[in-house]
Amino acid sequence: MSVIADAAAPVAIRPRRRVSFRAVFGLSVLLVMGASAVLAPQLAPWDPAKQMLMKRLRPPMWQERGLREHPLGTDHLGRDILSRLLYGGRISLGVGLTAVTLSALLGVTLGLLAGFFGGRADALIMRIVDVFLAIPYILLVMGVVFALGPSLLTVILVMGATRWVHFARVVRADVLSIREREFVAGARARGNRALRLLLRHVLPNALTPIIVMTTLELAFMIIYESALSFLGLGVQPPTPTWGWMLSDGRNYLATAWWLATLPGLTIMLTVLAVNLLGDWLRDTLDPRLKV
Q1: Measured between alpha carbons, how far is residue 108 from residues 57, 141, 177, 221 in Å?
Q2: Could you tell me if residue 8 is inside a domain?
Q3: Number of folded domains in the chain?
Q4: Domain that includes residue 150, residue range
Q5: What's the confidence (pLDDT) of residue 286?
Q6: Which pLDDT tens digit goes with each residue over 255-269?
Q7: What is the pLDDT of residues 187-227, one digit of tens each?
Q8: Residue 52: partners with Cβ closer than 8 Å, 6 or more residues away
Q9: Which of 95, 99, 67, 47 is nearest to 242 (CA)?
Protein backbone atom coordinates (compact mmCIF):
# COMPACT_ATOMS: atom_id res chain seq x y z
CA MET A 1 0.00 0.00 0.00
CA SER A 2 2.81 2.40 0.81
CA VAL A 3 4.38 1.81 -2.61
CA ILE A 4 1.04 2.55 -4.28
CA ALA A 5 0.59 5.65 -2.16
CA ASP A 6 4.07 6.86 -3.01
CA ALA A 7 3.44 6.27 -6.68
CA ALA A 8 0.19 8.17 -6.53
CA ALA A 9 1.71 11.10 -4.70
CA PRO A 10 2.08 14.19 -6.86
CA VAL A 11 5.58 14.99 -7.99
CA ALA A 12 6.71 18.55 -7.28
CA ILE A 13 7.69 20.23 -10.53
CA ARG A 14 9.95 23.20 -10.33
CA PRO A 15 8.77 26.04 -12.52
CA ARG A 16 11.12 26.83 -15.36
CA ARG A 17 12.66 30.22 -15.32
CA ARG A 18 11.72 32.12 -18.40
CA VAL A 19 14.47 33.84 -20.27
CA SER A 20 13.78 37.56 -20.13
CA PHE A 21 13.64 39.07 -23.61
CA ARG A 22 14.63 42.49 -22.33
CA ALA A 23 17.72 41.05 -20.61
CA VAL A 24 18.79 39.14 -23.72
CA PHE A 25 18.13 42.13 -25.97
CA GLY A 26 19.86 44.62 -23.69
CA LEU A 27 22.91 42.43 -23.11
CA SER A 28 23.20 41.54 -26.81
CA VAL A 29 23.07 45.20 -27.90
CA LEU A 30 25.62 46.22 -25.27
CA LEU A 31 27.97 43.42 -26.27
CA VAL A 32 27.71 44.42 -29.93
CA MET A 33 28.24 48.10 -29.11
CA GLY A 34 31.14 47.36 -26.79
CA ALA A 35 32.85 44.99 -29.24
CA SER A 36 32.37 47.49 -32.08
CA ALA A 37 33.94 50.26 -30.01
CA VAL A 38 36.90 48.14 -28.92
CA LEU A 39 37.49 46.79 -32.43
CA ALA A 40 36.85 50.11 -34.17
CA PRO A 41 40.37 50.29 -35.72
CA GLN A 42 39.80 46.87 -37.31
CA LEU A 43 36.14 47.35 -38.28
CA ALA A 44 36.13 50.95 -39.53
CA PRO A 45 36.52 51.08 -43.32
CA TRP A 46 37.97 54.63 -43.27
CA ASP A 47 39.86 57.02 -41.09
CA PRO A 48 37.08 58.84 -39.17
CA ALA A 49 38.80 62.21 -39.65
CA LYS A 50 39.61 61.81 -43.35
CA GLN A 51 37.88 64.46 -45.46
CA MET A 52 36.80 63.61 -49.01
CA LEU A 53 35.02 66.70 -50.32
CA MET A 54 34.24 65.02 -53.64
CA LYS A 55 32.03 62.56 -51.74
CA ARG A 56 30.37 64.99 -49.33
CA LEU A 57 26.75 64.41 -48.28
CA ARG A 58 26.48 61.01 -49.93
CA PRO A 59 23.42 59.08 -48.62
CA PRO A 60 23.54 55.49 -47.30
CA MET A 61 24.29 52.88 -49.93
CA TRP A 62 20.67 51.69 -50.25
CA GLN A 63 19.59 55.11 -51.52
CA GLU A 64 20.22 56.72 -54.86
CA ARG A 65 23.74 58.19 -55.11
CA GLY A 66 24.85 55.95 -52.27
CA LEU A 67 28.25 54.29 -52.41
CA ARG A 68 29.14 50.76 -51.31
CA GLU A 69 32.41 51.92 -49.80
CA HIS A 70 30.37 54.21 -47.50
CA PRO A 71 27.52 51.97 -46.25
CA LEU A 72 25.98 54.66 -44.02
CA GLY A 73 26.88 57.64 -46.18
CA THR A 74 29.18 60.60 -45.62
CA ASP A 75 28.86 63.93 -43.82
CA HIS A 76 29.27 67.52 -45.04
CA LEU A 77 33.06 67.10 -45.18
CA GLY A 78 32.98 63.72 -46.89
CA ARG A 79 33.89 61.76 -43.73
CA ASP A 80 32.56 58.21 -43.48
CA ILE A 81 29.59 57.98 -41.08
CA LEU A 82 30.09 54.31 -40.19
CA SER A 83 33.71 54.89 -39.21
CA ARG A 84 32.78 57.92 -37.12
CA LEU A 85 30.02 55.98 -35.34
CA LEU A 86 32.45 53.18 -34.46
CA TYR A 87 35.12 55.54 -33.17
CA GLY A 88 32.51 57.72 -31.48
CA GLY A 89 31.37 54.72 -29.49
CA ARG A 90 34.83 54.44 -27.97
CA ILE A 91 34.47 57.95 -26.52
CA SER A 92 30.80 57.80 -25.51
CA LEU A 93 30.96 54.34 -23.92
CA GLY A 94 34.44 54.82 -22.50
CA VAL A 95 33.61 58.15 -20.88
CA GLY A 96 30.31 56.76 -19.57
CA LEU A 97 31.94 53.69 -17.99
CA THR A 98 34.81 55.68 -16.48
CA ALA A 99 32.56 58.41 -15.12
CA VAL A 100 30.05 56.00 -13.60
CA THR A 101 32.90 54.06 -11.97
CA LEU A 102 34.32 57.27 -10.50
CA SER A 103 30.94 58.46 -9.22
CA ALA A 104 30.14 55.00 -7.79
CA LEU A 105 33.42 54.78 -5.90
CA LEU A 106 33.02 58.26 -4.43
CA GLY A 107 29.31 58.00 -3.71
CA VAL A 108 29.40 54.48 -2.23
CA THR A 109 32.32 55.37 0.04
CA LEU A 110 30.65 58.50 1.40
CA GLY A 111 27.28 56.77 1.65
CA LEU A 112 28.81 53.93 3.69
CA LEU A 113 30.50 56.37 6.04
CA ALA A 114 27.38 58.51 6.48
CA GLY A 115 25.03 55.59 7.08
CA PHE A 116 27.30 53.54 9.31
CA PHE A 117 28.77 56.19 11.60
CA GLY A 118 25.89 58.70 11.58
CA GLY A 119 26.23 61.77 13.77
CA ARG A 120 28.38 64.63 12.52
CA ALA A 121 29.81 62.62 9.63
CA ASP A 122 26.32 61.87 8.37
CA ALA A 123 25.19 65.49 8.76
CA LEU A 124 28.27 66.87 6.97
CA ILE A 125 28.06 64.45 4.03
CA MET A 126 24.33 64.94 3.59
CA ARG A 127 24.70 68.73 3.59
CA ILE A 128 27.31 68.42 0.84
CA VAL A 129 24.87 66.20 -1.05
CA ASP A 130 22.15 68.83 -0.66
CA VAL A 131 24.46 71.54 -2.02
CA PHE A 132 25.34 69.47 -5.10
CA LEU A 133 21.69 68.65 -5.74
CA ALA A 134 20.80 72.34 -5.57
CA ILE A 135 23.22 73.28 -8.36
CA PRO A 136 21.97 72.66 -11.93
CA TYR A 137 24.25 70.22 -13.72
CA ILE A 138 24.64 72.31 -16.85
CA LEU A 139 25.68 75.44 -14.93
CA LEU A 140 28.22 73.47 -12.92
CA VAL A 141 29.59 71.86 -16.07
CA MET A 142 29.88 75.19 -17.85
CA GLY A 143 31.75 76.72 -14.93
CA VAL A 144 34.21 73.83 -14.65
CA VAL A 145 34.78 73.58 -18.42
CA PHE A 146 35.37 77.31 -18.75
CA ALA A 147 37.84 77.16 -15.85
CA LEU A 148 39.76 74.03 -16.91
CA GLY A 149 39.09 73.97 -20.65
CA PRO A 150 37.18 71.28 -22.56
CA SER A 151 39.01 67.94 -22.66
CA LEU A 152 38.40 64.24 -22.16
CA LEU A 153 39.68 64.33 -18.58
CA THR A 154 37.57 67.36 -17.72
CA VAL A 155 34.40 65.69 -19.02
CA ILE A 156 35.05 62.53 -16.99
CA LEU A 157 35.78 64.48 -13.79
CA VAL A 158 32.73 66.71 -14.18
CA MET A 159 30.39 63.80 -14.88
CA GLY A 160 31.74 61.74 -12.00
CA ALA A 161 31.73 64.68 -9.59
CA THR A 162 28.10 65.62 -10.26
CA ARG A 163 26.47 62.16 -10.08
CA TRP A 164 28.07 60.65 -6.97
CA VAL A 165 25.41 62.23 -4.77
CA HIS A 166 22.75 59.78 -6.02
CA PHE A 167 24.91 56.80 -5.04
CA ALA A 168 25.56 58.36 -1.64
CA ARG A 169 21.87 58.85 -0.87
CA VAL A 170 20.83 55.35 -1.91
CA VAL A 171 23.71 53.61 -0.10
CA ARG A 172 23.22 55.66 3.06
CA ALA A 173 19.52 54.75 3.24
CA ASP A 174 20.35 51.05 2.82
CA VAL A 175 23.19 51.08 5.35
CA LEU A 176 21.00 52.73 7.98
CA SER A 177 18.88 49.56 8.09
CA ILE A 178 21.72 47.07 7.60
CA ARG A 179 23.78 48.37 10.54
CA GLU A 180 20.92 47.54 12.95
CA ARG A 181 20.60 43.88 11.96
CA GLU A 182 21.61 41.00 14.19
CA PHE A 183 24.59 39.78 12.17
CA VAL A 184 26.20 43.22 12.33
CA ALA A 185 25.58 43.41 16.10
CA GLY A 186 27.07 39.94 16.49
CA ALA A 187 30.16 40.85 14.47
CA ARG A 188 30.57 44.02 16.53
CA ALA A 189 30.26 42.02 19.75
CA ARG A 190 33.06 39.70 18.58
CA GLY A 191 35.38 42.70 18.51
CA ASN A 192 35.48 43.46 14.79
CA ARG A 193 36.67 46.94 13.99
CA ALA A 194 34.60 49.45 12.06
CA LEU A 195 36.53 49.03 8.79
CA ARG A 196 36.12 45.25 8.90
CA LEU A 197 32.42 45.61 9.68
CA LEU A 198 31.98 47.90 6.70
CA LEU A 199 33.90 45.77 4.20
CA ARG A 200 32.93 42.27 5.36
CA HIS A 201 29.37 42.67 6.59
CA VAL A 202 27.74 45.94 5.53
CA LEU A 203 29.02 46.48 1.99
CA PRO A 204 28.24 42.94 0.66
CA ASN A 205 24.63 43.32 1.82
CA ALA A 206 24.33 46.71 0.11
CA LEU A 207 25.64 45.53 -3.27
CA THR A 208 22.21 44.89 -4.83
CA PRO A 209 21.10 48.56 -5.05
CA ILE A 210 24.65 49.55 -5.99
CA ILE A 211 24.73 47.16 -8.97
CA VAL A 212 21.28 48.19 -10.17
CA MET A 213 21.97 51.89 -9.81
CA THR A 214 25.34 51.59 -11.55
CA THR A 215 23.63 50.04 -14.56
CA LEU A 216 20.94 52.69 -14.74
CA GLU A 217 23.46 55.50 -14.17
CA LEU A 218 25.47 54.25 -17.15
CA ALA A 219 22.52 55.07 -19.40
CA PHE A 220 22.36 58.57 -17.96
CA MET A 221 26.13 59.03 -18.38
CA ILE A 222 25.91 58.18 -22.08
CA ILE A 223 23.17 60.79 -22.54
CA TYR A 224 25.11 63.22 -20.34
CA GLU A 225 28.26 62.91 -22.45
CA SER A 226 26.28 63.23 -25.67
CA ALA A 227 24.57 66.36 -24.37
CA LEU A 228 27.90 67.94 -23.40
CA SER A 229 29.36 67.16 -26.82
CA PHE A 230 26.22 68.51 -28.50
CA LEU A 231 26.67 71.80 -26.63
CA GLY A 232 30.36 71.95 -27.48
CA LEU A 233 31.43 71.36 -23.85
CA GLY A 234 32.69 67.81 -24.30
CA VAL A 235 35.53 66.23 -26.23
CA GLN A 236 36.55 68.61 -28.99
CA PRO A 237 36.80 67.83 -32.72
CA PRO A 238 38.25 66.23 -34.75
CA THR A 239 37.69 63.41 -32.22
CA PRO A 240 34.29 61.92 -33.18
CA THR A 241 31.60 61.49 -30.55
CA TRP A 242 27.95 60.63 -30.97
CA GLY A 243 26.83 63.93 -29.47
CA TRP A 244 29.13 65.96 -31.70
CA MET A 245 27.89 64.06 -34.77
CA LEU A 246 24.34 64.87 -33.72
CA SER A 247 25.24 68.53 -33.39
CA ASP A 248 26.90 68.55 -36.83
CA GLY A 249 23.86 67.00 -38.48
CA ARG A 250 21.21 69.32 -37.07
CA ASN A 251 21.83 71.87 -39.84
CA TYR A 252 21.23 69.25 -42.53
CA LEU A 253 18.02 67.63 -41.33
CA ALA A 254 16.10 68.66 -44.45
CA THR A 255 18.76 67.66 -46.98
CA ALA A 256 20.82 64.91 -45.30
CA TRP A 257 18.69 63.12 -42.72
CA TRP A 258 21.30 60.45 -41.98
CA LEU A 259 23.77 62.89 -40.40
CA ALA A 260 21.67 63.39 -37.28
CA THR A 261 19.38 60.36 -37.45
CA LEU A 262 22.02 57.63 -37.37
CA PRO A 263 23.96 58.88 -34.30
CA GLY A 264 20.64 59.69 -32.62
CA LEU A 265 19.40 56.14 -33.20
CA THR A 266 22.70 54.78 -31.92
CA ILE A 267 22.40 56.75 -28.69
CA MET A 268 18.75 55.75 -28.28
CA LEU A 269 19.44 52.05 -28.88
CA THR A 270 22.37 51.97 -26.47
CA VAL A 271 20.50 53.78 -23.71
CA LEU A 272 17.44 51.56 -24.23
CA ALA A 273 19.59 48.43 -23.94
CA VAL A 274 21.20 49.67 -20.71
CA ASN A 275 17.82 50.58 -19.22
CA LEU A 276 16.29 47.21 -20.12
CA LEU A 277 19.24 45.39 -18.56
CA GLY A 278 19.04 47.59 -15.48
CA ASP A 279 15.31 46.97 -15.05
CA TRP A 280 15.88 43.22 -15.34
CA LEU A 281 18.67 43.35 -12.75
CA ARG A 282 16.42 45.32 -10.39
CA ASP A 283 13.58 42.81 -10.74
CA THR A 284 15.95 39.86 -10.34
CA LEU A 285 18.09 41.08 -7.44
CA ASP A 286 15.44 42.87 -5.37
CA PRO A 287 13.43 40.26 -3.40
CA ARG A 288 10.80 42.85 -2.48
CA LEU A 289 9.61 42.87 -6.11
CA LYS A 290 9.03 39.09 -6.11
CA VAL A 291 5.48 38.27 -5.11
Answers
A1: 47, 22, 16, 17
A2: no
A3: 1
A4: 19-45+61-289
A5: 63
A6: 899 999 999 999 999
A7: 777 877 878 888 888 888 888 888 888 988 898 889 888 88
A8: 74, 77, 78, 79
A9: 95
